């Protein structure tokens, strides 16, 4: 019983002391934080990492359009230097020399933007881990055609089955980017 009374009395003194300290601190410039609970800040932000490939980007983030907008109206963007965002859907598994970008909700077989880089002399250029990551691409939009042989080659590179490759017949319409400037969120440089 005596211990309970002492503990209660001590707590009352501590609480009363904090109230007194708060009032005293206001008038004598003492540190109020001794008796106050520190403010809880929001979740700290973590700086995002970006790997850069190709040319330097020139446009501001505010100029970015979704890749789906370019794919929906490719003629509107033909020959224009554009900054667009999307998700990497495929990367060349042999050299990392090409990648495909589509909207986040794209399904296999949906339209995409094809970006080709010069083959690196050794190693990979775009890392395979880029697939599924958000990317920002800048470059001049070219609405072209890919020959049947090239389209089959890129399908084969991507690991498509013989049946999938055989389904590529004739030239294929393809939105491409000339002189690409690419950043990919959350991946490291391959080389």
Give the helices and strands, then pairings.
Elements: H1 2-28, E1 50-54, E2 65-66, H2 67-72, H3 74-77, E3 81-91, E4 98-102, E5 113-116, E6 134-146, H4 148-157, H5 162-166, E7 172-185
Parallel strand pairs: 2-3, 5-7
Antiparallel strand pairs: 1-7, 3-4, 3-6, 4-5, 6-7
Give a summary of the structure in a few sentences.
The protein is an alpha+beta fold. Helix content is 27%, strand content 28%. The chain has a five-stranded mixed β-barrel.
Question: Would you mind describing this structure in some detail?
Answer:
With 191 residues, the protein is α+β, with helices and mostly antiparallel strands. The chain has helices at 2-28, 67-72, 74-77, 148-157, 162-166; strands spanning 50-54, 65-66, 81-91, 98-102, 113-116, 134-146, 172-185. It has a 5-stranded mixed β-barrel with strand order 3-4-5-7-6. A hairpin with a 6-residue loop joins strand 3 and strand 4 (98-102). The protein is globular. 23% of the residues are buried.
Give the SSE string. Answer: HEEHHEEEEHHE
Into which percentage range does the β-strand content fall? 25-35%
Query: Which sequence of strands runs across the widest sheet?
Result: 3-4-5-7-6
How many separate domains make up the residues? Answer: 2
Under CATH, the topology of the largest domain can be stated as OB fold (Dihydrolipoamide Acetyltransferase, E2P)
Question: Helix count?
Answer: 5
- Proportion of helical residues: 25-40%
């Amino acid at each position: 019983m005596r211990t309970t009374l002492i503990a209660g009395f001590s707590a009352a003194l501590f609480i009363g002391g904090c109230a007194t300290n708060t009032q005293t601190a206001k008038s004598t410039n003492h540190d109020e934080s001794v008796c106050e609970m520190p403010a809880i800040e929001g979740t700290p932000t973590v700086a995002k990492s970006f790997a850069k490939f190709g040319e330097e980007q020139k446009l501001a983030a505010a100029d970015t359009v979704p890749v789906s907008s370019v794919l929906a109206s490719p003629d509107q963007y033909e020959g224009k230097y554009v900054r667009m965002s999307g998700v990497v859907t495929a990367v060349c598994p042999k050299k990392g020399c090409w990648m495909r970008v589509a909207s986040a909700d794209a399904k296999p077989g949906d339209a995409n933007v094809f970006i080709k880089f010069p083959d690196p002399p050794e190693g990979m250029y775009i890392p395979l881990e880029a697939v599924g990551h958000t990317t920002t691409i800048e470059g001049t939009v070219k609405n072209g055609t890919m020959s049947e042989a090239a389209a089959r080659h890129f399908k084969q590179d991507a690991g498509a089955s013989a049946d999938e490759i055989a389904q590529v017949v004739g030239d294929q319409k393809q939105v491409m980017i000339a002189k690409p400037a690419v950043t990919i969120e959350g991946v490291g440089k391959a080389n």
